């Protein structure tokens, strides 16, 4: 991308949990050297399974969390260590929507007040003006004026998620980080929200970092995809290329695991294992413990990102050392392996 | 077209089941005369958007509705010839776990945090079978092996918090299958799981179903899961059954506009087109139902007749059913 508004460069995050009775516990290495950018009017999908570090990365991107090392820049300014006083003027441009609108909306505030609250902090407006903007935002996300004076508990999950979205959008941000923003709602509501995100991208040039475990949603909304596994990005690329010709065995496993008639019809092998603990990630490739095509080299050496035909990069030794995965079906024997 | 002969005999027969819940305005109906038959060895999906009454129906037929706030207003549930609602509490407890068992979306909240998983499986075995401690433990380990728990003997001595969500769901499946029930009711069993683990659990349910000749009632909002594992589908909307069909008919030629709209939204066949579909509006709330067809306010095919009268469920000779004046699977739509 020519110009990214939001850039993460070699970000590492490690948590050192305070054990009970100050027992020393090993740090959880949630994110291990991730670089990622979101450009103007661009939507980047970040996919991976629970515990892969994608939500941690999202929090780092909006500086709810400071990275252990690495830089986060927004509009060309490094924000990872910016004092709160200097961060505040940048906040309107960088917003976040969480998965669970139950816990991100104040139950004692009306929805109208919740949606307009960012305006109190960031803009000098009269109460009437704030209310008008709040109404406008509710319309945008498909809610009605009569909803303004209601409380979060009076709404369904899908409606609450729209409210959370309205609040994130009211300051007209340049980048919105959506962390599983459509994961708790019905498909119908999900699709409506995805369509709205597309529209905002086209009409207002908003950029999105769309974090989700839901491949179908990512496919609909993102132009570029990054696949994370155990704290590392294992593959990036244009959405169409990644879905049609996954270059990393993990991406391949994710895509073939998606339920549906095609999986049933294929009668393919059940994916093996579960991601290992981020407390003690294996040396070498993070995916080696589950990879059906693992080689000796994968156990000792972390593969470097290598360009893939059709765009993007993959961190896999197969790309440099073995039969490429991209664009070709895995040999049956390997597919059925283990 | 009829697959009648291939299917087994009816095992679970839900007849005109209506459930009411207590709201601020009194008892309000949330499901309306829900009927379906689950056959031996069949996997049936009970689908619909949140709040359509699918989980309520599942809890009602398990006798697990919260007593203070929900009740069965009318209807019967037969399990292999036994009228479940005629049972005493004691009889019902004997039957639950033995003939019919249930697994839930959140495996963590279904297990006791202070007992090892082996103890909890063994407890379930001993509750229903005359086995000694040692034998029950052996059975627990064997069950864990069966559900694909690696190092089952060692893992049996671990506590729930030491497991991942996928492994806990395996433990719950082990408990549910401990006494080889005839029917397994699974309420969103893979919704909280990651996609690769979801595939593992679906494959496990499939193989367990085949091995134990088990009938599975799968409550889910995910049509991809339905396409993956179900033989038969019952679609619910606003507390009513609006369509019943084989999974093939449902996916390729749905009769009800709601089914078609749901399918357009999720496209389980992996259509690559990028157009997004959704159903405008929201399902009606119980107690504020539209006068005619309950789907009419959101329906793309609605006309005057739909507002005038309630639409009855039409049963077809091949065992399928739908609740609409139209039949969208018919060549000209009527």
Automatic annotation (TrEMBL), chain B:
Kindly list the GO molecular function terms attached to this UniProt entry: ATP binding
Q: Which SUPFAM superfamilies match?
A: P-loop containing nucleoside triphosphate hydrolases (SSF52540)
Has the keyword Nucleotide-binding been applied to this entry?
yes
Source organism superkingdom: Bacteria
Q: Where in the cell is it found?
A: Cell membrane
Q: Keyword annotations for this protein? A: ATP-binding, Cell membrane, Membrane, Nucleotide-binding, Transport
Xref: Pfam families: ABC_tran (PF00005), oligo_HPY (PF08352)
Family matches, as InterPro entries: AAA+_ATPase, ABC_Ni/Peptide_Import, ABC_transporter-like_ATP-bd, ABC_transporter-like_CS, Oligopep_ABC_C, P-loop_NTPase
Any idea where the ABC transporter domain is? 12-263
Its record classes its membrane topology as: Peripheral membrane protein
> In the UniProt record, does the keyword NAD occur?
no
The record's family statement is:
Belongs to the ABC transporter superfamily.
Q: What is this protein called?
A: ABC transporter ATP-binding protein
What is the scientific name of the source organism? Salinactinospora qingdaonensis
């Amino acid at each position: 991308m020519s110009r990214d508004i939001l850039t993460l460069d070699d970000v590492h995050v490690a948590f050192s949990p305070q054990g009970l009775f100050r027992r020393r516990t090993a740090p959880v290495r949630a994110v291990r050297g991730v670089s990622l950018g979101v450009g103007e009017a661009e939507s980047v999908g970040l996919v991976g399974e629970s515990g892969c570090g994608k939500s941690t990365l999202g929090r780092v991107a909006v500086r709810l969390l400071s990275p252990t090392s690495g830089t986060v820049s927004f509009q060309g300014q490094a924000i990872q260590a910016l004092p709160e006083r200097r961060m505040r003027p940048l906040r309107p441009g960088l917003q976040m929507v969480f998965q669970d609108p139950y816990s991100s909306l104040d139950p004692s505030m009306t929805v109208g007040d919740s949606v307009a609250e960012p305006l109190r902090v960031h803009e000098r407006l009269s109460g009437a003006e704030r209310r008008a903007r709040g109404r406008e935002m509710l319309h945008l996300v498909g809610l009605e004026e009569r909803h303004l004076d209601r409380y979060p508990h009076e709404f369904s999950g899908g409606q609450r998620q729209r409210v959370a979205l309205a609040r994130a959008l009211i300051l007209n941000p340049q980048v919105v980080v959506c962390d599983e923003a459509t994961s708790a709602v019905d498909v119908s509501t999900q699709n409506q929200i995805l369509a709205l995100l597309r529209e905002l991208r086209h009409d207002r040039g908003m950029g999105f970092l769309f974090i989700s475990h839901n491949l179908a949603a990512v496919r609909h909304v993102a132009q570029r995809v990054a696949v994370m596994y155990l704290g590392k990005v294992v593959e990036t690329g244009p959405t169409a290329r990644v879905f049609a010709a996954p270059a990393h065995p993990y991406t391949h496993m994710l895509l073939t695991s998606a339920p549906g008639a095609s999986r049933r019809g294929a009668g393919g092998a059940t994916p093996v294992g579960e991601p290992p603990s981020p407390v003690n990630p294996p040396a070498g490739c993070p995916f080696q413990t589950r990879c059906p095509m693992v080689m000796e080299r994968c156990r000792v050496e972390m593969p470097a990102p290598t360009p893939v035909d059709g765009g993007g990069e993959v961190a896999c030794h197969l790309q440099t050392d073995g039969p490429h995965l991209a664009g070709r079906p895995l040999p049956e024997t390997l597919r059925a392996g283990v | 077209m009829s697959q009648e002969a291939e299917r087994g005999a009816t095992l679970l027969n839900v007849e005109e089941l209506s459930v009411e819940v207590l709201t601020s305005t009194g008892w309000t109906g949330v499901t309306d005369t829900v009927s379906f038959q689950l056959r031996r060895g069949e996997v049936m999906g009970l689908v619909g958007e949140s709040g359509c009454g699918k989980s309520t129906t599942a809890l009602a037929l398990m006798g697990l509705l919260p007593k203070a706030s929900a009740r069965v207003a009318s209807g019967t549930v037969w399990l292999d010839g036994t009228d479940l609602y005629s049972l005493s509490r004691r009889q019902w407890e004997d039957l639950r776990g033995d003939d019919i068992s249930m697994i839930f979306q959140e495996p963590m909240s279904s297990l006791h945090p202070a007992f090892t998983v082996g103890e909890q499986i063994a407890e379930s075995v001993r509750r229903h079978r005359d086995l000694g401690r040692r034998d029950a433990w052996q059975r627990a380990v064997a069950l864990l092996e069966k559900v694909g728990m690696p190092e089952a003997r060692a893992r049996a001595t671990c506590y729930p918090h030491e497991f991942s969500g996928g492994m806990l769901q395996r433990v719950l499946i082990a408990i549910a299958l401990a006494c080889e029930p005839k029917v397994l009711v699974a309420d969103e069993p893979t919704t909280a799981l990651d996609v690769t683990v979801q595939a593992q659990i679906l494959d496990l349910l499939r193989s367990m179903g085949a091995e134990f000749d088990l009938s599975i009632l799968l409550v889910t909002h995910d049509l991809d899961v339905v396409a993956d594992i179900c033989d038969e589908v019952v679609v619910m909307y606003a507390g009513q059954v609006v369509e019943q069909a084989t999974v093939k008919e449902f996916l390729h030629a749905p009769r009800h506009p709601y089914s078609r709209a749901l399918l357009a939204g999720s496209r389980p066949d992996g259509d690559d087109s990028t157009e997004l579909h959704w159903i405008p509006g929201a399902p009606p709330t119980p107690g504020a139902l539209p006068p005619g067809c309950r789907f009419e306010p959101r329906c793309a095919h609605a006309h005057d007749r739909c507002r005038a009268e309630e639409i009855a469920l039409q049963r077809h000779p091949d065992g399928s059913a739908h609740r609409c004046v139209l039949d969208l699977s018919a060549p000209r739509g009527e």
